[in-house]
Amino acid sequence: MPDTESAVASLPPSAKLVYKTLQYEGAMTQAQLADASLLPQRTVRHALKKLESVDVVEESVYLMDARKSNYHLADGEDTPSDPLAV
Description:
There is one protein chain. By secondary structure, the chain is α+β, with helices and mostly antiparallel strands. It has helices at residues 2-9, 13-25, 30-37, 41-53, and strands spanning 28-29, 57-61, 69-73. Strands 1-3-2 form a 3-stranded antiparallel sheet. A hairpin with a 7-residue loop joins strand 2 (57-61) and strand 3. The radius of gyration is 12 Å and the shape is globular.
């Protein structure tokens, strides 16, 4: 966890907020993250790209709607809130 924290510490505040939201709430789609964090979807999208670039967040298919992606922490510390997420 210390290396994850140091990787996240160097990212913009929006990425830190998205990381903490995933940590507390579990796996979510971009729209759910935008609602939970009160950030614009474009900002959430940018934050997710930053988090993925340091291998902190992983993307998977959202089974309720295959056009959407589900995001979760790569270290497995989050608990998926949606049983239909792969």
